[in-house]
Amino acid sequence: MTLWFVFALMTVAAIFAVLWPLGRGGRPDNQGSDVAVYKDQLAEIERDLAAGLIAAPEAEAARIEISCRLLAAAGSEPMPAPDSSLKWRRAASVLALVGLPLVAVAIYVPLGSPALRDFPLAQRQRGAGPGMAQSLENLVAQVQQHLEKNPTDGRGWNVLAPVLERLGRFDEAVRAYRNSLTYNGESPERRADLGEAITAAAGGVVTAEAKAEFERAHALSADDPKANYFLGLAAEQDGRKEDAANIWRALLAKAPADAPWRPLVQTSLARVGGGGVTLPALSDETIAATKEMNDGDRNAMIRGMVERLATRLRQNGDDVEGWLRLVRAYLVMGDRDKALGATTDARQAVAGDAERLRQLNEGLKNLGLDG
Amino acid sequence: MIAEAGHYALVLALALALIQSFVPVMGARLRDPALMNVARSTALAQLLFVGASFVALVTLHVNSDFSVANVYENSHSMKPLIYKITGVWGNHEGSMLLWVSILALFGGLVAAFGNNLPLSLHAHVLAVQAWIASAFYLFILITSNPFLRIANPPIEGRDLNPVLQDIGLAVHPPMLYLGYVGFSISFSFAIAALLEGRIDAAWARWVRPWTLMAWIFLTLGIAMGSYWAYYELGWGGWWFWDPVENASLMPWLAGTALLHSALVMEKRNALKVWTILLSILTFSLSLLGTFLVRSGVITSVHAFANDPTRGVFILLILCLFIGGSLSLFAGRATSLKQGGLFAPISREGALVLNNLLLTVACAVVLFGTLYPLAMEVLADFKMSVGAPFYNLTFVPLFALLLLAVPFGPMLAWKRGDLLGVTQRLLAAGVAGLVVVAIIWAWTRGGSALAPLAIGLGVFVIAGPVTDMAERTGLFRLPFATTLHRARGLPRSAWGTAFAHAGLGVALIGIVCETTWNSEYIATMKPNDVAEVAGYELKLDGLLERQGPNYREMVAQFNVSSGGEALSLMTPSKRSFTTRGSSTTEAALLTRGASQLYISLGDVTTEGAIAVRIYHKPFVLLIWWGPVLMAFGGMLSLSDRRLRVGAPKPARAKQRLQPAE
């Protein structure tokens, strides 16, 4: 309510600014004119002459010039004829009284948010503020603020990292896990978590960096299930399905019967064709777990397709489009080295044909690789 | 409530500006003083409302009210107070609000102090100001509204771009805007004169000081920006010929020309039409600068095409005002009364030469700025026009201009004596040549042009010195008389001398810095010693520090010269987590006018750090020059006398002929 009162006051002030001069009527102010300026100039010359700034003959010449202009100006001085055109003044008043508020409201209403109060930070930190739900994002921001000031608080990083990961802020999660490792010390779990975050940041691909983390976790504790699972995934993504199956089989063998991640590993194993293990009947949990795994599945499928394409091209390298698709696929999967390798292979394969080579180079340039 | 009240105040300012755009013009047509006086009160009210709106935005930033999108995107609760305030104009929306605030300020000043103007001129000027203001209020409200809200405010802001978290942001943009927008006054006066179809004698009397004021701010703003780039960007460069810099240089060049031609107009009633054209051009270039910087067209034409709302809006404003004013000029200029006459060799003639050179130089910069854009649009071909182009075009033009600078103030009005002036400048010329010879003998090496350029700089400084020495009778008369005379000289004469000498000072600085700077780039480990230009710099060590909203790594250098310890230098690298970016804070050690400059690169794995050390001889002269120019401008501005140029009387023989 106060806000509208303030708005009304401001509007009245604005209208008043227009009405005031209209109301004062047509008193002609002491306005400047050419004659006044020239008279001032003549006086200025006298002063300069007296101060010795200009010599007498120059002063005389200037005086003559200005006098000429003065005479001309005095002759053509427009007669101020203040016809008070009452009709137009009324129109202007109406414009101010009606037009001004209308324009102001018409512009403000679609743009402004009069229903929103101010939210200065100080007031919000006191906790006051209905409608200010302590959302997870806000809590995270507060913890981050705290850690910014006390970066060595290992427990803080420990708490923050999984939350960030769940929020999908993988890059920040990676940083948080690294800090947690620095300030809390080594542990297989933390290494494996870091590797998982790196993998997630890379869109589900176990990068060399992530793999190194899992290997370190594995070295610290050979039984760490997360490390083992991802090492298997890494093997699968590298195309070593046999190794993957072996790793996962060993993992399942050691796993407690009620481990929540069992179904996940079993589906993975089935995917790489880890023969011998019959899938248990699909329980509800398993279905839920496969849903979780969708990303990994999709990745595996893409990998398979890419591999097939690579094999085909190795046998018949004339297909420029195919090469470009392969390079793009590698780039999308974040595997720049392989993309560059494929580029080299492609160049060799089409080297004999100038037209194809040109097409290839053009396509590569579009992909952002050197032309 | 602050946010919404500020928003509404801006809307009211627009409404008032719309009324101010039409009612006074109507009044001038009907010769109704009451209607014309509406301009005055609405201009003042507009200033009040825009001011309130600006204060509201500053308050929101200071209070870290993240329910305002602009605050959320550009502020952070842990930012030091000064950067919370300067951050207001460290972003697009806020800087546009500052732009219109300054516009309203100038409008308010004209309204408050314009009593001695003819009433209809006053009304027209304020109406034109209101046209500009309305266009920009609309632009802000529609495309760049700083008061848009977020219904569920986040707890923390995204922080200001770290490069901008510097004291330079507090000074540079306001100065620059005071300059840019200040030229709107002379523009409004020019349009008003065209609308009225006559130029009053009061016209030039008003335009000259306002132009001068805008020019002073623009000079300081550009110099400040250049110094800021020099110490903040970490490359030790102070001018890059980059489009944003050119955008501020062009109005400066045109404004300098305008300043001089307005002077001729006030003193001699000549060059009227030309002055009007220059007023239009100068402000048009200011608008163009705003467009280039604010539309994003510079970063990439394509980025501009992706989000064209803002750019197209400014482009429309640009076309409307530049096109409209130039067509008005084309239609009306012929009906304006021509002013006084003068001989080619005269003070007026010299100022015409100055105008020609400055406008051509300005055209060169305009070409160099727009050509790459045109190429990108038309031929889809990305290129940049850099120093080599300007060295070949801009520099010779300016050298010619500088050569002529000392002659101007010594020529008489109306008809001058070039030979006489040359004789009087002989001493200055000789001083320049001697310096050339000395430097040539002393350096042997470097560019052959450098000693010549320094000689030119000395000549430009010695010229005004000779002039003032002559006028005060230094060495001719007893010292007391000289002092008395010096005090008696108008401050505007001193202002001219200082401003012209400033040019020479800046030139010397530029030449010395570019020719004789030395640099040392290496990776250093603690206790390594670098030797640069006779200084030994020992890296004591690296340490980490926590700032209010950043962490920084500081390197400590012990600087000594010839075994004598001089000072500690602590360059640093700051990393800002919120934006995930970092800045280099160069360390500067000033020795006289020269500076040592250290900036840090990356740390290698072995604990060594990449370091760039520069020694920049006489680099500070580059900025002392503009400061001297601005000081001269202020001296001249403080001189409240009328300017009357007394002509040199014609000799008897000439008097028989009609004046030229």
From TrEMBL, chain A:
Domain Cytochrome c-type biogenesis protein H TPR: 133-260
SMART domains reported in the protein's UniProt record: TPR
Chief site of localization: other
Protein's cellular compartments: Cell envelope
Gene Ontology cellular-component annotations: cell envelope
Single GO BP term: cytochrome complex assembly
UniProt KW keywords: Cytochrome c-type biogenesis, Membrane, Repeat, TPR repeat, Transmembrane, Transmembrane helix
Keyword Membrane: yes
Transmembrane segments: 6-23, 91-111
Protein name stated in the entry: Cytochrome C biogenesis protein
From TrEMBL, chain B:
Residues of the Cytochrome c assembly protein domain: 89-295
GO biological process: cytochrome complex assembly
Cytochrome c-type biogenesis protein CcmF C-terminal domain ranges (all copies): 315-640
Keywords per UniProt: Cell inner membrane, Cell membrane, Cytochrome c-type biogenesis, Membrane, Transmembrane, Transmembrane helix
Membrane disposition: Multi-pass membrane protein
InterPro entries listed in its UniProt record: CcmF_C, Cyt_c_assembly, Cyt_c_biogenesis, Cyt_c_biogenesis_CcmF
GO cellular component: plasma membrane
Bilayer-spanning residue ranges: 6-30, 42-62, 96-114, 121-142, 175-195, 207-229, 249-266, 273-292, 312-330, 351-374, 394-413, 425-442, 448-466, 618-637
Location within or outside the cell: Cell inner membrane
Pfam families the UniProt entry points to: CcmF_C (PF16327), Cytochrom_C_asm (PF01578)
GO MF terms held by the record: heme binding; heme transmembrane transporter activity
Primary role: Required for the biogenesis of c-type cytochromes. Possible subunit of a heme lyase.
Family stated for the protein in its record: Belongs to the CcmF/CycK/Ccl1/NrfE/CcsA family.
NCBIfam families named among the record's database cross-references: nrfE, PRK10369.1
Protein name, UniProt field: Cytochrome C biogenesis protein CcmF
